[in-house]
Amino acid sequence: MMDVTPADLRLARDRLRDHAVVTPLIENNELNARVGGRVFLKAENLQRTGSFKFRGAYNRLSQITADRRGAGVVAWSSGNHAQGVAAAAQILGIPATIVMPMDAPAIKADNTRRYGATVVEYDRYRESREDIARGIAAKSGAALVPSYDDPDIIAGQGTAGLEILDQATERGVQLAQLLVCCSGGGLVSGIATAFSEASPDTAIYAVEPEAFDDTARSLASGRREENAAQARSICDALQTPTPGELTFSINRRLLAGGLSVSDAEVREAMRFAFHHLKLVVEPGGAVALAALLHGRVDATDRVTGIVISGGNVDPSLFAQILTER
């Protein structure tokens, strides 16, 4: 099986230069006081397309040779990878088709189309998005762009980790622990790869919705576990059935563990982010913050990093969450 190295991340950073946003690392007094330590938030909700996914998508697509670009690309996603692939394809002049669940947030589907991609809808509870995408690719000759289990995708996502390391160094701090939102594991495996070289003592945790805690259970058991078919969560972006083969091989080696949070805790974290951090955060992007706010790790007198992975939330849902008591 292929591996991903810190050198791969540095090459990805070079490809992303002038295309991806170097998102800020934010410290907030209210949050520090709440947990009793220093906290630094990597605001990937401010990334191009509103999530970290653009990093991996552009790194993958930019390596498709000119003679293959005309055949296009096919990806599957509930929304953030869809937008990342669509935006990268638009920049590079590559036709894109995205297989998306019919219940994906409207803002994500609309933005994907706005970037010029063709959207093919499917029922996430009855159909296989991978099978649909592979069928399209077989007919058209398009390149498949997986959402996480791909070395170029992982390397691209890992550039967020390189930025965190640089930004923390500029602040004169070293992170004792880092909490990263996790679905298939591409982001956390990429970031863990970055830290494995430059800050191996930083404890890195994958954070998931409690109904989709397959990575946490897999890390505990030592083998890839699956989520229940009937599982549901407000976190539409974090609903993969099982960890990726490549991502899990990296994560079981580099992560300190897995954490999970409830939908109610995610909603509270979204409200906290809006009222105190002045950030719009989608449910899947708020799980790491939720884990910190609800004591899944001890942040007292420690330096903790968390990744806010995305901000693509439908306005109606966001308004509902903000007004809840």
Quantity of strands, as a count: 10
Our count of helices gives: 14
Largest beta sheet: what is the strand line-up?
1-2-10-7-8-9
Q: What share of the residues does DSSP label as strand, in percent?
A: 15-25%
Nearest-angstrom radius of gyration?
A: 18 Å
Tell me the structural class.
alpha/beta
Spell out the helices and strands N to C. Answer: HEHEHHEHEHEHEHEHEHHEHHEH
The backbone outline, from C-alpha atoms, is globular
What's the overall average pLDDT, rounded?
A: 95
Helix content: 40-55%
Largest sheet: 6 strands, mixed
The N- and C-terminal alpha carbons lie at a distance of: 48 Å
Assembly context of the chains: single chain
Low confidence ranges: none
Task: Give an account of the 3D structure.
This protein has 325 residues and is α/β, with parallel strands linked by helices. It has helices at residues 6-16, 29-35, 53-61, 66-69, 80-92, 106-114, 129-140, 151-171, 186-198, 214-221, 245-254, 263-277, 287-293, 315-322, and strands at residues 25-27, 38-43, 73-76, 96-101, 118-122, 143-144, 177-181, 203-209, 257-261, 303-308. The strands form 2 sheets. A 6-stranded mixed beta sheet has the order 1-2-10-7-8-9, with helices on both faces. Strands 5-4-3-6 form a 4-stranded parallel beta sheet, sandwiched between helices. The radius of gyration is 18 Å and the shape is globular. The mean pLDDT is 95.
